[in-house]
Amino acid sequence: MPLRPTRISVDIKATYMLKGFQGEGRIIDISTGGIGMEIKQIFVLGDLVRIISRLPTSQNEEIDVWGIVRSVSGNMIGLKFEEISKENIEKIDRYVASLLTQSGKAAREDYGG
Q1: Exposed (0-12), middle (13-18) or buried (19+): which is 41, by Cβ within 10 Å?
Q2: Is residue 112 in a domain?
Q3: Would residue 8 count as lying in a domain?
């Protein structure tokens, strides 16, 4: 079975921008490949969304990333990172690695459909 980056449950406030509209949502899980978000707007598969958030680290690092909507279920969306700077990748990698260490989970997991 193919493996994907392990998703870690979080609760992080985020701002999203889609087609000129800005809204507030919550990141509910994060991995090195993307995020799951709870939102109050209708999204469709393939939407390109900009997400700005602060990771709850000791430096309170800001991330500013673009993602493509890969799944929609009610008010939950799954985003795959699309346009992301090396600096933002490193911030997310460090944050996810620290959460994985705390949880004892592996960096990759089964897709388990």
Answers
A1: middle
A2: no
A3: yes
Q: Which tens digits make up the pLDDT trace of 14-62?
A: 999 998 899 999 999 999 899 999 998 889 999 999 999 999 988 899 9
Beta bridge partners of 53: 14, 63
Whether the model pTM is above 0.90: no
113 found inside a domain: no
- Within-domain flag for 82: yes
Considering only CA atoms, which of 43, 6, 47 is closest in space to residue 25?
43
- Domain holding 96: CATH number? 2.40.10.220
Q: Report CA-CA distances (Å) from 30 to 19, 20, 48, 50, 94.
A: 23, 25, 17, 15, 12
Do 109 and 4 touch, CB atoms closer than 8 A?
yes
Check whether 112 has a pLDDT greater than 60. Answer: no
Range of the domain at 34: 3-102
Share of the chain above pLDDT 90, in %: 68
Amino acid at 94: R
